[in-house]
Amino acid sequence: MNPTFWQRIDGLARSACPFTITLLLTVLFLVPLRIPNLAEVVPSILLISVFYWTLYRPDLMPIWAVFGLAFIHDLLSGILLGVGPLILLLFCLALNGQRKFLVGASFSALWINFFILSSLAFLFQWVLIYLLEPGIPDYRPVIFQNLTTVAVYPAFSWIFALIQRTLLKE
Amino acid sequence: MNKRIGAISHVTTPVQAWLHGSAYAVLIVVAIALIILAKTGNVGVERVRTAVVDGVSPLMEIANRPVVMISDTIETAQNYVALKSENEELRRQNENLRRWQIAAAKLQGENASLRGMLNLEPTRAPNITTAMVVADQGGSFVRSVVVNSGSLDGITKGQAAMTGLGLAGRVAEVGRHSARVILLTDLSSRIPVFVGSSRSRAILAGDNSPSPSLLYLDEGADVKVGDAIYTSGQGGGFVSGLPIGVVHSLTDVSIKVRPYADWGHLEFLRLEDYGLKQNLDILYSDSGAERQK
């Protein structure tokens, strides 16, 4: 009836897009694909998505949203609650520290930067789990998960760019 | 006018920056508080976790359907291709198994008569629920899965989760129609076991790798590669005698076990209830032990 009302709903739905898509992908990535040994090294879609949106549309991926996404991922994956949010917040802090350098950077520079930041995130998470849980966690799947995450980064950043161009035009 | 706007933005920018910075600080403190709450086994954390998993598991079940369909189709096609060679292999295995069946029947009779002589309580048949795995391990730091049965289906904390071949893990959290199973390869998994026919005691400890290791093995125990590992039932967490796997490698520093469960194909789990919940209640709560009596 009131066009401004629907426009507002439309605008809201569009601006909730990065959060909703990340949430959906997080859930979908937990679906068992029945491919042996994939689940342990399945790429961390959260890292890719948070990296992309924090860089290009920080207004649509505020840190409370990052916290919320990591919180839900922790609840669903069964890892010790709180570890994911802590790592992801530090990841965002480090990312924001380099914002000036990264905004105008070439794709390969972004990719290398993502590799460094995600490696640090995985390393820090391993150390945290080592300190909090009994025994020494196996490091091999952690390295592989980092590599698969870095490997699929270009594909997902292309998808996110497509979403940004089509749905979030200003 | 311009000057005025400039003045306002000059005031708000540091305030905004400060708010942004303090939001980081607050959320990091919240995250650390969450870790402490989760680590101390807070009941609220478990409730929130089961509620969220309960809410999402129907969605996962739907998302699972096309995967099941595709993988079943591929499997059927593969079966057709390998039909002849598989048939021969199965025939050979069948013969072998028949021999074992005769041996097992003989041992079963012997076991029953010996138990009768000793007046041992007959072993109870468990209540079995078969559940589908709807959520996989979410990454490289944890080894647990979510199944689509919960308290409404009679699932309780501590039940043994079996694959067709052996023990896979234990039920750790139960929602209304979903439950989380911690696999025996998880970093936090500790299971009292017997090793080999000598029944030496040890603890099977997971480290997130596919082959958990044996800790605190009885002194002077003679362990060989190929020795069978099964639950000892000590501590009351599991019944005695559930098959787990075999000793797979022996070094000076560690004894690795290869579980019978196939981690690559965890599609269904058999949740077995041996009525041990009471024992676990005592184990889980320090003060509860007195109350149970």
From TrEMBL, chain A:
It holds the Pfam family MreD. GO terms for cellular component: plasma membrane. It is a multi-pass membrane protein. Its main location: membrane. It comes from the Bacteria. It is found in: Cell membrane. One of its GO terms (biological process) is regulation of cell shape. The chain crosses the membrane at residues 12-31, 38-55, 75-95, 107-131, 143-163. Keywords: Cell membrane, Cell shape, Membrane, Transmembrane, Transmembrane helix. Belongs to the MreD family. This is Uncharacterized protein. It comes from Kiloniella spongiae.
